[in-house]
């Protein structure tokens, strides 16, 4: 019997005590403190996208309250996983150890012509040198900045190896019967018990490195999509559904596009490729003129993140995982066996029936975000680092472009850096998409983005620190890059208290950035052994949670603020329009705050409307109306009950009223709550819709279409779509003129009349 099989025979009670004992032995990192675990669980329930029918049924749970019962167990398990997970560099582990790197290392000497200050003097050897906030650093400073992190990882890896050796010896010696396993478990060998979990967790961590990542974000504004696209219907002035996006002039990628005649939809299934024996991803191009007809099936991808349609070009973003040759045998680190990358495929679709691949860009790192603005594609990837065998081996810790290290003057090393990874950004001219126009790198773990017409904002969350005494508060570092004609430039860096709910908590107006955060704070105290005087560790007391609104100038300096809002509550949604901002917090009831931002240096809360439930998505619907999509909740306990639509009268921001409310009692979740692009909305047409579902009644999955008329919500259509074999997942709706189209990741596309709700066609 293999050691893994022996461990599988432990009963539930033994595993429970094992997790608890192991958790006590492992120092708790900041990211796994209870509050950070709570935030992680909340994000998992809200943001992860399904890949199968089973995942779809389990997706999101029924809000975070349903996870509270497993929070302690999850925290313990995460703590065990941390021992191995923090060592793994599987995400970007191709650097420095492959056979192909030998030549690269030999070529590194040539790169030293631009590698200045390679010798670090004694005076600076014990401290991290941090460059100015502006772009331009040196490779030596980058190496020195990462050195502390690498050293910590190497020490942790050595500990893991020792644990692995101990558990191997213990398990191999154990008898195969349950009694012998019990004896082995009960033996006074804490390290052995810890490593049994480490061994199991290691495999899970490595497997997770191969998972596809989805980065759907929440958002607030509907506006134009594919503004440069050309189609007969668009030229004739026919109304059609557009991607719901944050800024009108900045296009965002999505899984479905509509240009007024053709539909472009990410498809997952059997592509008909004679050389493929499994389902693949592709992009379907469907002609809606004179009925529904599939013109072409573009590509045969491992996965598709999102797509764009720009004029007669189709952009497909494909994430991937590449195994490193002999990755588990090179060096002494078995976890460095591969890396994430993404491909940006550009197709010429001037003939929709015969798309031709124009160019493909391959970028190392995991895909984060992208935008198209003024005819340029801007995309962002996250790329990790690792310690090289020699400091001169730049490819191990410097972003590579065309197999050459990025110039140091294109890399920004911010003050107070705490990351050992890069955000790599690049641009492509969509008129001639065959080369990179501009590229930059920022040393950061930033994972939230807001792109205005002139600037790119990136947010890096800094959670509470539990390794020193005193009052600790989480914070967010904001970076601003200007952009124009494909060229980007780092302009400013700033910090605010608290963390962002999502990208839509940021908004730029008249050269000021407005943002809303939830601020969590703890008093961290030292725990001292009274007998020995030994510092045992740290504990937190006096926890608090509030919300804040900040106004930053173009240097990202805070010029105005309103703090200590809604104590004990968390931010759920935000929306800005001109000089007025609205945001929602929640605990048991839903306070909708309105704020006057006309004087950036002196923002003022105008009003606070308290109603039951909460809105997770806000959208300015018409003159003096604000739409909220969210949940109804019990006013006493805060327990969620069902989906809810609210229409707020904001004619007087100081006295906002809930003009109308509609409880959707048959549904308890919707993609619209977590991904604003899942909302079809056209306020001029007085139309909005989304996919909703019920967890307890699996056949209760519907696409709902509404309008707001005579002061009330009116349901236009309710289309059943629980047949996952036909629809697949990620069900979306769009329209052209008076025809509505329902699509999923599967083959089925349905057409309905918006005039009477009748079904007028389908494509299988």
Short structural description:
The chain is built from twelve helices and 41 strands.
Report what the structure shows.
This protein has 764 residues and is α+β, with helices and mostly antiparallel strands. It contains twelve helices and 41 strands. Residues 1-35, 38-132, 178-229 and 326-335 have low confidence and may be disordered. A hairpin with a 2-residue loop joins strand 29 (614-622) and strand 30 (625-633). Strands 9-10-14-15-13 form a five-stranded mixed sheet, with no helix packed on it. Strands 18, 21, 22, 23 and 24 form a five-stranded antiparallel sheet that branches.
Largest sheet: 5 strands, mixed
Report Rg.
27 Å
Question: Averaging pLDDT over every residue, what do you get?
Answer: 76
Trace the largest sheet across and list its strands.
9-10-14-15-13
From the spread of the alpha carbons, the general shape counts as globular
Strand content: 35-45%
Share in helix: 10-25%
Secondary-structure class: alpha+beta
Low-confidence residue ranges: 1-35, 38-132, 178-229, 326-335
Count the strands? 41
Number of helical elements: 12
End-to-end Cα distance = 50 Å
Please tag this protein with its features.
5-stranded mixed beta sheet; 5-stranded antiparallel beta sheet; 40% strand; alpha+beta; disordered N terminus; 764 residues
Task: Describe the protein's topology.
Layout: H1 3-8, H2 12-25, H3 34-47, H4 53-58, H5 71-85, H6 101-111, H7 122-125, H8 139-173, H9 178-186, H10 190-208, H11 232-235, E1 256-258, E2 262-269, E3 280-287, E4 293-301, E5 306-310, E6 313-323, E7 338-348, E8 356-364, E9 366-373, E10 376-384, E11 400-401, E12 404-405, E13 411-412, E14 421-429, E15 438-443, E16 448-451, E17 455-462, E18 470-473, E19 475-484, E20 487-497, E21 506-509, E22 512-528, E23 535-552, E24 558-565, E25 570-577, E26 580-586, E27 589-596, E28 604-612, E29 614-622, E30 625-633, E31 640-649, E32 657-664, E33 669-670, E34 680-682, E35 687-693, E36 701-709, E37 712-720, H12 724-727, E38 732-736, E39 739-743, E40 749-753, E41 759-763
Parallel strand pairs: 13-15
Antiparallel strand pairs: 1-2, 2-3, 3-4, 5-6, 6-7, 7-8, 9-10, 10-14, 11-12, 14-15, 16-17, 17-19, 18-22, 19-20, 21-22, 22-23, 23-24, 25-26, 26-27, 27-28, 29-30, 30-31, 31-32, 33-35, 34-35, 35-36, 36-37, 38-39, 39-40, 40-41
Helix pairs in contact: 2-5, 2-10, 3-5, 5-10, 8-10
């Amino acid at each position: 019997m293999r050691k893994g099989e022996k461990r599988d025979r432990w009963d539930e009670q033994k595993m429970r005590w094992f997790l608890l004992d192991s958790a006590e032995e492992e120092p708790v990192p900041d990211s796994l403190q209870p509050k950070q675990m709570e935030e992680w669980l909340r994000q998992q329930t809200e943001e992860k996208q399904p890949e199968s029918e089973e995942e779809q049924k389990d997706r999101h749970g029924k809000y975070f309250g349903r996870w509270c019962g497993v929070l302690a167990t999850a925290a313990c398990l995460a703590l065990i996983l941390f021992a191995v997970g923090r060592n793994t560099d599987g995400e970007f582990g191709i650097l420095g150890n492959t056979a192909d790197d030998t030549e690269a290392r030999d070529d590194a000497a040539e790169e030293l012509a631009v590698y200045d200050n390679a010798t670090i003097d004694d005076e600076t050897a014990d401290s991290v040198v941090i460059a100015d906030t502006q772009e331009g650093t040196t490779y030596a400073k980058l190496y020195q900045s990462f050195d502390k992190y690498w050293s910590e990882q190497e020490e942790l890896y050595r500990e893991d190896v020792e644990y692995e050796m101990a558990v191997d010896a213990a398990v191999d010696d154990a008898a195969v019967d349950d009694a012998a396993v019990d004896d082995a478990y009960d033996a006074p060998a804490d390290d052995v018990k810890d490593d049994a979990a480490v061994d199991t967790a290691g495999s899970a961590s490595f497997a997770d490195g191969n998972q596809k990542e989805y980065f759907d974000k929440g958002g607030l504004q509907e506006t134009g999509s594919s503004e440069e696209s050309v189609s007969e219907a668009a030229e004739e002035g026919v109304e059609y559904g557009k991607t719901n996006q944050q800024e009108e002039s900045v296009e965002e990628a999505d899984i479905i596009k509509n240009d007024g005649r053709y539909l472009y939809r990410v498809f997952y299934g059997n592509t008909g490729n004679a050389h493929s024996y499994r389902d693949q991803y592709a992009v379907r191009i469907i002609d809606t003129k004179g009925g529904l007809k599939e013109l072409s099936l573009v590509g045969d991808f491992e996965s598709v993140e999102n797509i764009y349609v720009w004029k007669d070009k189709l952009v497909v973003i494909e994430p991937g995982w590449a195994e490193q040759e002999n990755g588990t045998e090179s060096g002494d680190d078995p976890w460095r066996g591969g890396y994430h990358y993404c491909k940006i495929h550009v197709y010429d679709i001037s003939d929709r029936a015969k798309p031709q691949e124009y160019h493909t860009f391959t970028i190392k790192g995991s895909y984060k975000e992208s935008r198209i603005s003024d005819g340029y594609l801007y995309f962002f990837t996250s790329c990790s680092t690792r310690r090289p065998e020699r400091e001169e081996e730049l490819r191990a810790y410097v972003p590579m472009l065309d197999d050459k290290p990025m110039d140091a003057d294109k890399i920004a090393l911010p003050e107070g850096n705490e990351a050992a990874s890069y955000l790599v950004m690049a641009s492509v001219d969509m008129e001639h998409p065959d080369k990179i126009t501009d590229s930059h790198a920022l040393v950061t773990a930033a994972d939230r983005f807001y792109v205005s017409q002139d600037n790119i904002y990136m947010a890096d969350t800094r959670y509470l620190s539990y390794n020193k005494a005193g009052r600790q508060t989480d914070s967010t570092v904001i970076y601003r890059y200007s952009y124009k004609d494909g060229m980007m430039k780092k302009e400013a860096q700033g910090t605010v208290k608290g963390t962002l709910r999502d990208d839509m908590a940021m908004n730029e107006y008249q050269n000021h950035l407005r943002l809303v955060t939830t601020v969590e704070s703890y008093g961290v105290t030292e725990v001292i052994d009274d007998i020995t005087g030994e510092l045992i560790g740290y504990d937190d007391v006096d926890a608090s949670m509030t919300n804040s609104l900040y106004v930053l100038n173009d240097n990202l300096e805070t010029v105005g603020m309103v703090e200590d809002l809604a104590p004990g509550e968390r931010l759920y949604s935000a929306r800005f329009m001109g000089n007025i901002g609205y945001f929602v917090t929640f605990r048991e009831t839903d306070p909708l705050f309105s704020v006057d931002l006309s004087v950036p240096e002196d923002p003022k809360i105008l009003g606070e409307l308290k109603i039951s439930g909460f809105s997770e998505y806000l959208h300015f619907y018409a003159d003096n109306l604000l739409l909220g999509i969210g949940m109804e909740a019990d006013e006493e306990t805060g327990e969620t009950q069902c989906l809810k639509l609210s229409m707020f009268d904001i004619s007087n921001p100081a006295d906002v009223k809930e003009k109308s409310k509609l409880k959707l009692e048959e549904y308890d979740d919707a993609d619209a709550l977590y991904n604003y692009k899942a909302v079809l909305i056209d306020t001029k047409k007085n139309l909005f819709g989304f996919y909703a579902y019920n967890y307890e009644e699996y056949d209760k999955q519907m696409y709902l279409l509404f309008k707001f008329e005579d002061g009330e919500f009116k349901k236009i259509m309710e289309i059943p779509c629980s047949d996952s074999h036909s629809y697949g997942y990620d069900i979306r709706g769009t329209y052209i003129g008076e025809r509505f189209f329902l699509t999923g990741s599967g083959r089925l596309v349905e057409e309905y009349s918006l005039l009477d709700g009748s079904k007028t066609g389908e494509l299988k």
